[in-house]
Amino acid sequence: MAIFMNARFSPSLDIPLYQQVYANLRSSILSGELKGGMKLPSTRALAEELGVSRNTILNAYRQLAAEGYIESTQGSGTYVARILPDHLLATSEREGSTAAVTTEPLQPRFSDNARLQLAAPRMSRLAPLPIEVSPRPFRFGIPNLKTFPYALWTRLVIRQARSLPPRAFTYQDPAGYLPLREAIAAHVTVSRGVHCTPEQIIVVSGAQGGLDLAARLLINAGDPVWMEDPGYIKARSAFLGSGAEIIPVPVDHEGLVVEAGITRAPQARLAYLTPSHQFPLGVTLSLKRRIALLDWARRANAYLVEDDYDSEYHYTKRPLPALHGLDDHGRVIYVGTFSKVLYPALRLGYLILPLQLVDAFRTVRNLIDTHSPILEQAVLTEFIEEGHFSRHLRKMRRLYAERRVTLLEATQKLPLEIISPEAGLHCVGWLPAGMSDRALVQQAASHGVDLVQVANFSMEPLERKGILLGYSEYSVEQIRDGVQRLAAAMRVL
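The structure assignment produced for this chain is given below.
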């Protein structure tokens, strides 16, 4: 189209591509360059002409149609509307048909809380690649999906789909499928030292759904919230979404420094932490600090959100029981997930709540998305009850333990100080003094290695620069090859 001859569309701008196309077309309609009744190109043809995806054009056309600029006729095509909305005609008459019309799209108006979330560090650079793409070492946070028992899971899905009664297809309990909550209660009692009843459990859409629910119910705008620093960005974003004032609390070899949190915000409303295997540094919160933290929460009438995201993966000695198991005053909200144990797309996690919070959480969960899908909950229940879950865990522990040892052996000659607790799915590599973490990440990428800086997760400057090295997705051969590539990248710096 001639109107696009001088147009420039760039995905690097803050404005989405479809809004750039929309603004150009809208301007041309208002100026009369595109006259009423004129047929527009098909979405496929215009996408090819502009070198953008068809979805970009579809979204631009949809917005124009919704606002009355264009009309679509099935089997005929898309046309410029012959009669524009009255307020647009009035504007055109006042300004004159040849007057210059701004091509700037209207800026969206977001809530204050949404702006806080959007201003937080972007996750795009940390998001995993699609699972069908062969991953490059050393991405982290994704379980090994090649070893998941797909055939068994498929049989369970078919069995449950055939056997679920008709009542399973209506609205369900907001707290989740009761047999699944019973299975979770039994599992965490044995594996994590968490003593609870099924009534204290709410099944949510992954750990992130649980964090969002807790933030909605427990935080007012301006409330201080302790966050481990460095720490989990998506948890920070959930609390920012409720208007929290994030209080960074440093982490050392014993975990979150409780005294620092008390000094900075003694009356904080809530504290978020990963005590069993701190993310991203991997340290374990000491027993002394656990007791101090619980004592503070009781005195401050604060809640502790314990994210136990990968506690199932300990490779030698038995891990410390969950912080929840030490709580005698109803201060701990336990967050568990099946994303790291089974597969991320399952989107099933759970909260274990103090009894006094259960009714309120159930009510608000019902207002958000009612409940999690019933079929997946039923399948997971059977997977746990028949012993498949425990067997899968044992298999994955052996596999990840082997890969962890391989990574530690392969990196011995690198100029890195490797910190690798006998748990989790990644380790930390601290760089030698003077080496730039950003330069290393860029150089490693050119050598076929994907790294993430520890600094990406930090709110305050770190004393040392480091990188994360994930090992769960990679075979022994891939790990060794990846370390050789990393060594080559480091020699360039």
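Interim note for the steering committee: The radius of gyration is 27 Å. Residues 130-144+393-492 form a domain with the Aspartate Aminotransferase, domain 1 fold (CATH 3.90.1150.10).
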